[in-house]
Amino acid sequence: MHHSDKDPIIAVATAAGRGGIGILRLSFGKALEAQIVGRLFGENCTLKARYAHLLPFLGTDGGVLDRAIVLLFPAPHSYTGESVLEIQAHGGPVLLSLIMRTCLEKCRDLGLRMAEPGEFTRRAFMNGRMDLTQAEAVADLIDAVSESAVQAAGRSLSGEFSNAVRDVDGNITELRAFIEATLDFPEEDIDVIGSEKVRTRLVQAETGIRAILENARQGQVLREGVTVAIVGSPNVGKSSLLNALAQEEVAIVTDIPGTTRDRIEHWVSLNGVPVKMVDTAGIRTTDDVVESKGIERTLVEIRKADVVLHLKDASGLIRDDTEVLDKVLKEVRHGVPLITVNNKVDLCESAASGGEIAISAKQGVGLSELKARLLEVVGMAATTDGVFMARERHLQCLKTAAEHVSRALLLIDCDPMPELVAEELRLASRALGEILGETTTEDILGMIFSKFCIGK
Ligand code: GDP
Ligand code: ZN
């Protein structure tokens, strides 16, 4: 069946499962307002705008299913920009799905259907209630796994990210208009392109984009988190370290070498940055089939990690099987930081040498230093105040925009052709517009909204 983005839609907006209340939401064109309200609450029923009405909700057989608080937000002053009807019922999953089916049945001839994931927010975007970055922030706010992530998503939702992008874009567009204007008056022969004013403003634009990019990069880390693979020989204390960082028992700690055969991962929050710590099987030469499978899996983890933490035994009791370990550490991707950490310093007199971090997983020594180093290598050492939530898509657009502005700067140095400079600026603007959803293709929009939960 072909779904139109004009169909009236309905979904349960609250989480699945039991709850005190459960909310159903309908969105539809203003023209359908009286009909839908009539079908659901009786032909004589009219709802005052944005006013809480306590009404019985009747089943198809006329019996009362529930008494609900009903609110009507007439277009355009609603979440979607269409008319929105909210039914706040009791939060039982069976009740809610029964109410939904009843609504669908009563309004079948009006074309009411279940909403697709993200469809309410998609309509909000289509109707200009929010730009694309804000729409994405809605999903990110719901999915946020740390308080810093919540704050960053909140900043994007309130438009801080969009406004920063719009500001730079505005400057670029103004500059382009200025340059294009000179194209129409070549006889005046003033060196507009080579002027200090143009150069200064281009440099400002580039600096501006790079500043947004840095905030966005940190936002992306808050959104997606960082994966740290802990590798090392058996019994150096990998599982103990994971437990110490997680501050709870998540991995099995034993004295028997090779115990951690399955991958064990746990999310910890370091300064609000979500970090997935992955405990891996110990690395050593082995004939044991299960254990060598574990090593293979460790290799897989290493290739996926954002940071690799090589844990060593500082006490000297456990020596690394350097041959195997070197082979494994060779698999660390280019550009992925490798941190060497000496564990069990409680067992030795002098701490480890030369810049390596010394800890005792057992006694909780040196952990804050280790956390600080982890945050440092992923570029999250500074406070995340002012960071806004962002995605890979945004970073790509920002990088593209920055490249075009850099190229414009290069162009004004060599035989300046105003047309070419203007073209670079046009491309920079297009990339920035894509962030806000002004020049975004249908495919990209479909991909973004399909990741939303139903009812949002
Ligand atoms: P893994 O095989 O690398 O995961 O090592 P485990 O975390 O299972 O630890 C192996 C043994 O080393 C256990 O007996 C731990 O109690 C011990 N151990 C771990 N960290 C420390 C530490 O910092 N100090 C001391 N003294 N013992 C530790
Ligand atoms: Zn272990």
TrEMBL record:
It is found in: Cytoplasm. Its EC number is 3.6.-.-. Mg(2+) binds at S239, T260. InterPro entries: G_TrmE (IPR031168), GTP-bd (IPR006073), GTP-bd_TrmE_N (IPR018948), GTPase_MnmE (IPR004520), MnmE_dom2 (IPR027368), MnmE_helical (IPR025867), P-loop_NTPase (IPR027417), Small_GTP-bd (IPR005225). Pfam families: MMR_HSR1, MnmE_helical, TrmE_N. Its main location: cytoplasm. One of its GO terms (biological process) is tRNA wobble uridine modification. Binds 1 potassium ion per subunit. Homodimer. Heterotetramer of two MnmE and two MnmG subunits. This is tRNA modification GTPase MnmE. It comes from Sutterella wadsworthensis 2_1_59BFAA. The lineage of its organism: Bacteria, Pseudomonadati, Pseudomonadota, Betaproteobacteria, Burkholderiales. The gene is mnmE.
